[in-house]
Amino acid sequence: MARLQMQKIGICALKKDRQALIEELQRKGAVQLVDQEPPEEGAFGKTNTMEQRSGYERTIQACKQALEVLDKYAPVKESPLAALEGRRMLSPEEWKKRTREREELEGVARQINALAKQAAENHTQAGRLQAQVQGLEPWMGLDLPLDFKGTKKTAAFIGVFAGERDEGALKEALAQSAPELEALDLWIISRTKEQTCVFVLCLKKDAQKAEDALRANGFSLPGLPGDKVPAQEKEELLEKIRQCQEKAGQNEEELRQLGSRREDLMLLMDDSALRAEQQKATDLTMASRHVFWLSGYLPAKRAKEIQSLLEQKYGAVVQFEEPAPQENVPVAVENGPFAAPVEGVLNSFSLPGKGEIDPTFMMSLFYYFFFGMMLSDAGYGLVMVLACGFCLVKYKNMEPSWKKTLKMFLYSGISAAFWGAMYGSWFGDAPKVIASTFFGSDFAIRPLWMDPLAEPMTLLMICMLFGIIHLFAGLGCKVYQSLRQKDYLSVVSDALVWYLLVGGLILFGLSSQTFVDMLQLDFLLPAAVGAVGKWMAILGALGVVICGGLGYKNPLLRLVNGLYALYGSTSWLGDILSYSRLLGLGLATGVIAQVVNMMGSMMGGGVLGAIVFILVFLLGHTMNIAINLLGAYVHTNRLEYVEFFGKFFEGGGEPFVPLDVHTKYYKISEVK
Q1: Which CATH number fits domain 1-36+287-332: 3.40.50.2000, 3.40.50.300, 3.30.70.120, 3.40.50.2300?
Q2: Phi and psi of 87, rounded to 5°?
Q3: Domain 147-223 CATH assignment equals 3.10.20.30
């Protein structure tokens, strides 16, 4: 249980060294800077770098957008495990050398984004023109421009009626709408279920009457202005489309050639992120004309290292002091190689709050244990161990968070292999099925301990026993935590009385023949032990009632709240029953695995049977391990978060976030 001790640090140095000193702190990643209010009177004032920081953030966005463009037009094939390769290493000197020409690199990003925009605009324009071509298709039989209005003595109307219309019916409808028309003729250019395209001609003096009659029958203009014959208009549009597509192709070819600048843009993006964070750190300093001051928190174990570095390299004045008890100090935890992999599980819940211990080590002991019980297949466990071990060996440069996660699953896989061997589950009953189906043998790998399917009640009792141990361990953490805070009353009220009550009830129950028979246990504790357990439970119950009412002066309220606290003891039954999931998930894994093996062996022996068995085996067990891995992970976390943490841990600590190299693609190869 290693919660790092934090110290406050104050640094005063020459203003000319501020940028270099902040860069040094960033590479060391040891100090979390805090904001400070300058004194109302004095030479120190705040610095505002919003303009510079905004510039770097714009560069980050431009690079991000440019990289997305290159991923589209000049993609790079990556391994499915590329995320495990980690960030690439660069020395500080190489980093500065490659980012020296920032303006040129920013120009590349702008050029890529501009080309992508041009390509998109050309494709959009081609799409618009193509829509116009499609709109002209119904008019290909017309040898006049669509904007033709008639001659000196005639008026022409070119347009459409909705739906499929007959020429005779249209003429009759127009005649009924305008019987006074002296002459009107109509030709159908094209006709579909959606529309009927027509050309109408009448005397010029009757143009208004003809137009009114046409509109009364649903006539509308085509919406395709043009002073050319549709066929000619189509040819010109197709040529424009070809030109747009050619320009877009040229843009895309230039983008593919710029794919070679991908790594430069990655580095520019990371460098801009570093500089933006440096500017943000600069805003947290107070400066006068010649000196500046900054303060923050750092782990006490790194205090001498940082002090020596800053004093020798920059002539800085470095001061340390212990945080005041009321200060909200940032929290960082550090554990050994066995417990560190589950720090991510703790972080997903919350970091320790003020006065709380780091529960990672104690949690890890049960985490791997329970995870293995839920997965409980030796074959699946070995697959996890081999897969995680391979990745850890092959990808030496992977990020610490990935490394911790893989180690967590590696240790959980070892536990699953152990419990699988205890239960005799090797990909379910695969050895037995393979031996009987393909070799006519009765070979089988026997359980080293018990078969869960044959003795489910016994295993259920064992799971609940492990649950009680887990819960009591949580109470033990509460005792340790309270003793550190010298809160002796909490030791009694929050832990000791529950040890007596729950432990006493368990001893009393195990000395009762009725209780033992109900649980199908094959042992019975002596009556003397049961008597001791009874008095322990009575003493614990009295303690719960007394301690539950300590905060009230009114005797009646004390009694009521004490009895209510005693009623809360029923939650222990629910907590203990929660550990039945250790049995449930373990049985589910084994039963599904056996069903997969049975399905695979339904074709019997022979070549065809072997092929079917292999396919079903691979597909079925892959799905089973994926589903039950997720189930084991979720339910193990739940047992830790709800049952274990519920006994002593609330969390709420603010994470320690030092000024560090927070980049995506590259990192500086400097030992902290």
Answers
A1: 3.30.70.120
A2: -80, 150
A3: no
